[in-house]
Amino acid sequence: MRHRNGLRKLNRTSSHRLAMLRNMTVSLL
Where are the domains of the chain? Predict the structure, then answer.
């Protein structure tokens, strides 16, 4: 919801990036 403007370009990339970030965080933890 922070990159509401970027949503136009990363329509479905946001979901993929969020999942990747979450996986990275879990791996780091």
Answer: 1-29
**CA quadruple 16, 17, 19, 23: dihedral sign:** positive
Residue 28: pLDDT band by 50, 70, 90 thresholds?
Answer: confident
Which bin fits 21, alpha (ψ -120 to 50), beta or left (φ > 0)? alpha
CA dihedral 18, 16, 3, 25 (to 10 degrees): 20
Q: Is the pTM of this model over 0.85?
A: no
